[in-house]
Design a protein that fits this description.
The complex is a heterodimer of chains A (281) and B (302). By secondary structure, chain A is mainly alpha-helical. Chain A is 70% helix and 1% strand. In chain B, helix 4 runs antiparallel to helix 13. Classes of the chains: A mainly alpha (281), B mainly alpha (302). At the A-B interface, helix 1, helix 3, helix 4, helix 5 and helix 6 of A face helix 1, helix 4, helix 5, helix 6 and helix 11 of B.
């Protein structure tokens, strides 16, 4: 039990804030005066009165439902390409991986410049080819897809996980499928994908949990603009806590977020019995 | 005679069919290779271009920055952009500030996660598995839930605007690393510990002399990931620090945007970004194997 001081410390550090936050969520609390108990008023406010809240939930669900699968498909595509023997493979693996270790603060600046409406890499190239420019982050319709593109660019971690999974698929299975006359597309669908479902489940879950908490890129790049089309859940939560000093309301938002994440996680786990194949080796 | 002729004819046709089939297989393989190379090169370009564009912009003079079509190789080159970022803004100070909390958090994560993981995996005690489960389930908890109470605690302790708020929590362990190390420690045979115990070795001795030397790869992963996280962290410093002399790079780069004229800011921002990215890329190249192993270790092998 010589590690018990650390254990107690760890629990204090995590468990106390959880309960404190739960308590704050039932109070009106501006961080100056002591919290005042108001029961479920914060939650009621959130669900029945707050129009921005509804918008923010919609934006975040959009990001999760489109961004997570988009990132996953990109990561799987990259891993599938890298799973072939070819010259310069380590070089390309590095190229595909690097964006994911670029600090978010730097990638925000780089993409702000790439997306610049007049002189950015994309629009300047389009203009010089005589094509129409694209309003990327300044269009309420395109702003979210633009952020998803950045997300798809930084898929190195998922790619490495998929690559490891692909390399673990036993060769014998492919040979057997070949004997049965399966073409390469059928082999991909009926051998590769099922054998990689545990990895897909893992990447999907972590991706989902991360995406619901999406903050830094949105906060740096758009601040919710244009027309609140990129105001995401965590950004709205941060604003309530540290800009409007509605700590009680923000705590209620945090708990609601936690509930959403838990619900989604449980749903995916439940469904995973039907599509995840464990029986690997 | 006739029969022989038809037989010869048959064999010829068979051979021709075989040749055609072989040719088809080769063609399909060739097409596959072509598609592979085209796909890899095309995607590789798309993935690399933003960073190449960043470095290119960071070396440009102003007219080249706003040139349409975009210029890839700047001429003349203006490396002074970097010097100006370093001298006109306290970039060096931000760098030192970042180091000042990245290093201690790495030590904190290593020490605390090792100890906790050790007691979770190598010592038997009541309630251990329940506590471990609790610890693991906190990984699902969004930081947003803890954020506000932590802010209040740190304010009451007077830790706001100091690195204590960022560093001290790492000394109490991190569920992710505890999980990783516990899995790793569990693979070390228990007989080793038992033998050491018989020889009169204390728990601390077992940890330091037996477990740690065998766990170097996992420890490297913890140190590396913690350092990278701290280096990349934006939300933590944003909440806990608001004095500019304490800014790490993450907050500094943001504040830089407003201190140069909008029309002149791009080369400086790109030079700053390049300087923030450079250390992570250098670390990546030096520790590539640990890095990749770490991801696979925590990913599916965990």
């Amino acid at each position: 039990m010589f590690a018990s001081p650390w254990l107690i410390g760890f629990l204090m550090w995590v468990i106390y804030p959880i309960f404190a936050s739960l308590y704050y969520s039932f109070t009106q609390f501006d961080a100056m005066r002591p919290p005042r108990f108001i029961g479920l008023a914060n939650y009621a406010d959130m669900i029945f009165n707050d129009k921005v809240f509804r918008l923010v939930v919609g934006n975040t669900v959009y990001l999760v439902l489109i961004g997570v699968p988009a990132g996953l498909v990109m990561a799987f595509l990259l891993a599938t390409l890298l799973n072939n023997e070819f010259k310069l493979r380590p070089f390309f693996r590095t190229i595909f991986f690097l964006p994911s270790i670029v600090p978010v603060i730097a990638s925000a600046e780089v993409w702000r410049w790439v997306y610049n409406p007049r002189y950015g890499l994309i629009n300047a190239s389009l203009k010089s080819l005589g094509m129409a420019t694209i309003p990327w982050l300044s269009s309420p319709i395109l702003a979210k897809p633009s952020l998803i593109i950045i997300h798809m660019w930084a898929q190195g971690t998922a790619m490495v996980i998929f690559l490891a999974a692909l390399q673990d698929v036993p060769r014998a299975l492919y040979d057997a499928a070949l004997v049965d006359g399966a073409n390469s597309w059928q082999r991909f669908w009926h051998v590769t994908i099922p054998m990689c479902t545990p990895a897909i489940l893992f990447v999907m879950l972590t991706g989902l949990i991360g995406m619901f908490q999406y903050f830094t890129l949105g906060w740096l790049l758009t601040q919710g603009a244009p027309n609140n089309s990129t105001e995401f859940y965590s950004m709205y939560l941060y604003r309530n806590a540290f800009r409007f000093f509605k700590m009680g309301y923000a705590s209620a938002l945090a708990w609601f977020l936690f509930l959403i994440i838990v619900t989604f996680t449980i749903l995916i786990f439940r469904s995973s019995a039907r599509w995840v194949y464990y029986g690997g080796e | 005679m006739d029969q022989v002729a038809t037989e010869v004819q048959l064999i010829r046709e068979q051979r021709r069919a075989q040749a055609i089939q072989q040719w088809h297989v080769m063609l399909a393989r060739l097409a596959g290779r072509m598609a592979l190379y085209v796909g890899v090169v095309f995607l590789g370009l798309i993935f690399a271009l933003p960073l190449i564009w960043m470095v290119s912009t960071s070396l440009k003079t102003d007219p080249q920055v706003y040139h349409v079509p975009p210029i890839w190789v700047p001429n003349p080159i203006r490396p002074v952009n970097y010097l100006e970022v370093l001298t006109r803004r306290p970039f060096g100070l931000w760098f030192l500030n970042t180091m000042q909390y990245c290093m201690p958090t790495t030590v904190g994560a290593l020490v605390s996660s090792t100890l906790v993981a050790y007691s979770f995996s190598r010592i038997r005690w009541r309630g251990r598995d329940a506590l471990f489960f609790l610890c693991i389930s906190t990984m699902m908890l969004p930081f947003q839930v803890q954020m506000i109470p932590l802010y209040i605690i740190f304010r009451n302790l007077g830790w706001l605007n100091s690195y204590k708020a960022l560093v001290i929590p790492t000394f109490f362990g991190n569920a992710y690393f505890i999980f990783l190390l516990r899995q790793f420690f569990s693979t070390i045979p228990l007989e080793l510990s038992d033998a050491a115990r018989v020889d009169g070795c204390s728990e601390t001795g077992i940890l330091v002399r037996i477990i740690l030397p065998l766990s170097k790869p996992a420890l490297a992963v913890v140190a590396l990931f913690q350092f990278m996280w701290a280096w990349n962290d934006y939300l933590g410093p944003l909440i806990f620090l608001n004095r500019e002399t304490l800014f790490p790079l993450a907050l500094g780069l943001q504040s830089m945007r407003s201190s140069f004229l909008e029309a002149l800011v791009w080369p400086y921002m790109m030079a700053g970004s390049t300087m923030i990215i450079a250390p992570t890329i250098i670390i990546f190249f030096l520790t590539q194997r640990t890095f990749i192993e770490g991801i696979t270790l925590t990913g599916i092998k965990g």
